[in-house]
Amino acid sequence: MRKLAIGLAFVLATISGGVAQGQQVPEGGQDGGILVEGRKQGPRKEARRFVERIVTTTKDQLSRFNDPVCPVVLGLTPPYAKAIVKRFREVSAEVGAQVDRDEKCYPNVFVIVAADAGAIIAQLREKYHGFFRDLAYDDKRTALDEGPVRAWRVSEELDQSGRPGAQGPDGLRSFRGIDPGSRISLSTQQATYAAVVVIDVNAIDEKSVGQIADYVAMRVLAGAGPPKEGGRLDTILTLFDGDAVVPEGLTQVDRSFLTGIYQMQANAPLGSQAGTIADRIVRDARETGTAKKPR
Description:
Order of helices and strands: HEHEEHEHHHEEEEHHHE
Number of helices: 9
């Protein structure tokens, strides 16, 4: 896993011609207020609906980092790049993800501010198509979709204990002979070991360091994407939605969502994982007094 992440860092360095150089972004970015509003369905169903609208899946499970995260930002001046890295590390630690504290760690989270995000992806696909070959459908879609942001994660399948399967002569891994699991506990889990976010330089105009870092955290730590089916949801994931009123940073719902990802049972079925996260959102809203009664 570490070798692939190192290789990805080398690949991204070779296409630095498309990376925006010397760009700056506004400072600041703080937490916005949160409301978990239960409409006709009640708070938990609303929270569950929110989760289902933003998650991406790998083999019908949610994927998260098992290894410590080590972020790097390309395309911004050092002070702003360092500020985004610092904020990302803080959020990661707060929600329960492991963080590599060594500043010289091998990167496994790559944030690229590019002159043209589409051109960067085109170069990667042409020269290093292997990085896209084994992506899960949801990750491949978010990497190749048009828009100001392209984001994807690379994951691997592990057994219940977090170990890779036995590698066969064909290079594929097998999980034969392990506990087959049950309806509430599967025999395997999905683990993210690298993630890439490519952002058009023009899209960061008037965006703060805190907003960018918090948006990246949602995309990277949990594989969350902009809410589906339209409508304004109180989430930093609307940062690049021109029609949205964007919060100043992670909302309480966002924080609860990320915390739920890192508290859920890694080898549980998708439905159980989503339920755990929804419960966390509702519980945190009640504890902080931000939940409203159903209308």
